[in-house]
Amino acid sequence: xxxxPVEVEKITRAKKVDEQGATxxxxxxxxxxxxxxxxxxxxxxxxxxxxxxTPMDHGHDGAYEVIYxxxxxxxxxxxxxxxxxxxxxxxxxxxxxxxxxxxxxxxxEVAKLSWSxxxxxxx
Length: 123
Hints:
This protein has no helices and nine strands. A hairpin with a 4-residue loop joins strand 2 (30-37) and strand 3 (42-48). It is globular and about 40 Å long. The strands form two sheets. A six-stranded antiparallel β-sheet has the order 1-2-3-9-4-7, with no helix packed on it. Strands 6-5-8 form a three-stranded antiparallel β-sheet, with no helix packed on it. The protein is mainly β.
């Protein structure tokens, strides 16, 4: 299903995961902590240092992706639309299926983002 070292879970009752219990994944300059990965939703938090960018994400078949800015100031490049969206603390961006995107930390501090995909990763 993906290149991430995470197994798909079936959650049948409430489950709590703290930062230490999340699976850490590095993709270039992006450090992600994956908290939940089920057949219905994926929830993760990532950090990007100032001036760095994530690899180009080619989007997901059958899945929407939400990027929420917890801390910092980033720009999301959407090459298929030839546009940029700025996200500051408290802002969110919902991407449709197969939306290519890349996140660039344009701020002076580490950016912390939450990203979720539903109903599945679609790759």
